[in-house]
Write a structure and sequence with these properties.
Alpha-Beta Plaits; 15 helices; DNA polymerase, domain 1; 3 domains; single chain; 386 residues; 12 strands; Dna Ligase, domain 1; alpha+beta
């Protein structure tokens, strides 16, 4: 009986992506600490350059704390249209080697290269070529991990950043995993890590040597997953990214918003960003949802479905605003956070046409092109009063 071939799974992670793009586009920022994220008192860090990380600034950190740690940093709002443009260039390179590309975020993707070796040669050579092509095309660096499964590939990509390439061979797995802290296991957050450490599990070796019954008793189904990952076992397949569930945008305000006109304008702006990304990704969605968070952190979502998938700014805007007016009651409260998303995605084979189909489609395509070329602030619609 022929042995099952060892899978070749790669994980690509663009290095400090948002900050690196800003340094690429603005030479004066190069070599300086750049922090990208929400700039208000409630904002969080999306990406910090490696220069900023030396000060202890990291992703998901409150922006107020980052400012205290790095007072001389360059603090910037994200430019998602620019990041999407470069992300699309990277994905184009990845799809040249395999259709099995799973995009996790704008700067991160898994690739299944198992079948690609018959065409392009050893996977080790493919990832070297991918790194070179990404640098040549975008002028940015990426870190890549290559292993027999997703967990190990993700781990490998983190071991030698930035601009790293780590290949984990099957015979190296346990020797590499055992001395690592339990927090290095993908999916183990701070809460789970504290519980593990409280139980005496400091290293992955400790988890590997623990009885399965103990881990299941403490963590339920998660305990079984931890047991397998501590042994480097993960049979999760790479899922092509066209199965993405939704595209969304949200914003947290430095001060609660109460004015209905401003709320409506912000909803429209978020809807336009979502619609633009749908068109760039060549996707359409059948469900439009909004997310509203109040000052007491109560969060609600409201959604509506349409019969035909859409990427129309006009339709998504209208549905988002209508959802808010019909199905959200402020009751004298302000709004802390707003979000707009589109789900039930599929490939956009035919653009849904509105009453003014030709004019609207031309306008949307023109705005998308101008934004991609010159940035988000180069043009605004007449109803953007904020």
């Amino acid at each position: 009986m022929r042995a099952k071939p060892v899978r070749k799974i790669a994980h690509l992670d663009m290095d400090a992506f948002f900050a690196a793009v800003e340094q690429l586009d603005h030479p004066a920022y190069r070599g300086r600490p750049v922090i990208v994220g929400g700039l208000g008192p409630r904002g969080v860090v999306a990406t910090a350059s490696y220069e900023a990380r030396k000060y202890g600034v990291g992703s998901a950190m409150p922006m107020a704390k980052a400012r205290k740690l790095c007072q001389d940093g360059i603090y910037l709002l994200p430019r998602f249209s620019r990041y999407q443009e470069i992300s699309a260039q990277v994905r184009e390179i990845l799809y040249a080697y395999t259709p099995l590309v799973e995009t996790i975020s704008l700067d991160e993707a898994f690739l299944d290269l198992t079948g690609s070796e018959r065409v392009f040669g050893p996977a080790e050579e493919i990832v070297v070529e991918i790194k070179r092509r990404v640098r040549d095309r975008t002028k940015l660096t990426c870190s890549v991990g290559l292993a027999s499964n997703r967990f190990l590939a993700k781990l490998a990509s983190e071991l030698n950043k930035p601009d790293g390439l780590v290949v984990i061979e099957p015979q190296q797995v346990q020797g590499l995993l055992d001395p690592l802290p339990v927090g290095m296991i993908w999916g183990v957050g701070k809460v789970t890590e504290r519980r593990l450490r409280g139980l005496g599990f400091l290293k992955i070796r400790d988890l590997r040597e623990a009885p399965l019954e103990l881990l299941v008793g403490e963590f339920g189904a998660t305990g079984r997953t931890l047991y397998r990952l501590a042994r480097g076992e993960d049979d999760t397949p790479v899922q092509p990214s066209r199965e993405a569930k939704s595209i969304s945008r949200e914003v947290t305000f430095p001060q609660d918003i109460r004015e209905m006109a401003k709320i409506e304008n912000l909803l429209r702006h978020l809807a336009r960003d979502v619609a633009a990304q749908l068109r760039q990704e060549k996707l359409q969605g059948k469900t439009v949802r909004i997310k509203v968070r109040f000052p007491n952190f109560q969060t609600i979502t409201r959604q509506v479905s349409v019969g035909v998938g859409t990427d129309s700014t006009h339709i998504i805007e209208g549905l988002a605003v209508d959802l808010f007016h019909r199905r959200v009651s402020l009751k004298g409260r302000g709004v802390r956070l707003l979000g707009v998303g589109v789900g039930r995605l599929s490939e956009a084979n035919i653009r849904q046409l509105s009453l003014f189909d030709k004019e609207e489609t031309f306008l949307e395509d023109t705005l998308d092109d101008l934004t991609a070329r010159y940035g988000e602030k180069i043009v605004r619609r007449g109803d953007e009063g904020w």
